[in-house]
Amino acid sequence: MNDAVTLSRDAHAQNLRDYGAAGRDRERAIGNRGPLVLGEDGKLDREILHRFREHGFYIFEDVIDPNEISDLRADALEMIERAPVAPDAKVDAKGRPALGLDYPRIPYRLVKPLADPWGGTEILGGRHPTQMAQPTPDADAPDYVVFLMYSMCRSMPSGLRLYGHPGLLAVAEAINGEDFVPFNDAIFVKQPGLGGSVSWHQDGVTHWDSPDWDPGIHGFNFQVQLYPSTLGNCLWVVPGSQKRGKIDIKALVAENGGSEQIPDAVPLVCDAGDVTIVNRQMLHGSFANSSPDMRISLTFGFHRRSSVLGAKAALAMEGDNVCYDERRIFERSAVIQVAIDARQQAHPDEPRFRYKPFNGLEEDFRFNDATFDSVIKDYFIKDLAI
């Protein structure tokens, strides 16, 4: 869509510097960051909830401790090393069978270095209508790089434990109610000087014309940052845009002279262990990672149960006629309960989250070999996308 596609990697990074600095000033002025504060009742601080609903994002600082981050990094890097060397390949870079060949769905998406795989296409319901700049990678860049990884709860033991984090689940409950349900999980990988972009978009697909529409109807996503998320590789959001309904992104970019550098956006700069929360209706995106900094973001979302029950599957994840019924929601939600127990086994002194839809069923959903096979093994083909 723009002339920047001819930029070198270094020129692209330079082109983002002034924009990044101005965006950081805008984010600091809003000030939506701080510790994850729960009251004596275990509920999320009301002021944080208010600020999230007002601006559509919040940055929880220093949530995941260094030891857990170390475990998560090790498991994520192992997944990257086990990725196929090309989209149709069966082996990794060391010639071993790639991870996931026996999964019901290959848990990787690979892209060309610094590419925008979705922008300007009909992929994912056409929700990425404009394309980000695609700078020219260095001459020694590989043919393909890992862009997304799925199956966090199956492929990463530490990822399953993270999914049961009591503080994060308390946030999900505060936003979406005691009967909250899962969306999906995906690991965004932006390797230094290689990582692809995600063009400007809003995540929601199904409920824009619903008579019950409101700014929270499409849920939210967490992103747990395993490395510092910098101005050169971070997620950008447009504060308050979750309230505007379906945005004409093409027109917005055109009004900006065709530039992808939308003037009201702010960067979610984080330290390792910080966790961002973003309303799925917000306008958001990320630029190609022309920086020298690694970013790995463990992304997982949650919905209101009322938004999902009876809704048709979206994002081309399944056939057009698949509807989410009680059984489907229960089976996917069981992952939360098993993850809670997996975390409790690893962190017995930590408070245990009580997930209300599974009250009285805890003994049936302990983490063990049987529940791994019945609940965790193929869970990601039962995601609840709207």
Give a description of the structure:
An eight-stranded mixed β-sheet has the order 1-2-10-7-12-5-4-3. A four-stranded antiparallel β-sheet has the order 6-11-8-9. Helix content is 30%, strand content 15%. The chain has helices at 9-30, 46-55, 66-81, 123-126, 152-155, 157-163, 166-176, 249-255, 305-308, 326-346, 369-376, and strands spanning 33-34, 57-60, 108-111, 145-149, 181-190, 198-201, 220-225, 236-237, 266-267, 275-279, 284-286, 295-303. By secondary structure, the protein is an alpha+beta fold. It has one domain (3-381): Jelly Rolls (Sandwich). Mean pLDDT is 95; it is low at 1-5. The chain is built from eleven helices and twelve strands.
Strand content: 5-15%
What proportion of the residues is helical, as a percent range?
25-40%
**CATH class descriptor:** Mainly Beta
Large-scale geometry: globular
Count structural domains. 1
Order of helices and strands: HEHEHEHEHHHEEEEHEEEEHHH
Using only CA atoms, what is the Rg? 20 Å
Strand element count = 12
Q: pLDDT below 50 for ≥5 consecutive residues: which ranges?
A: 1-5
Question: In angstroms, what separates the terminal alpha carbons?
Answer: 28 Å
What value does the average pLDDT take? 95
Given the helix and strand composition, which structural class is it? alpha+beta
Strand order of the largest sheet: 1-2-10-7-12-5-4-3
Q: At the third CATH level, what is the topology name?
A: Jelly Rolls
**Tally the helices: what do you get?**
11
Give me the CATH architecture, please. Answer: Sandwich
CATH superfamily: q2cbj1_9rhob like domain
Biggest sheet descriptor: 8 strands, mixed
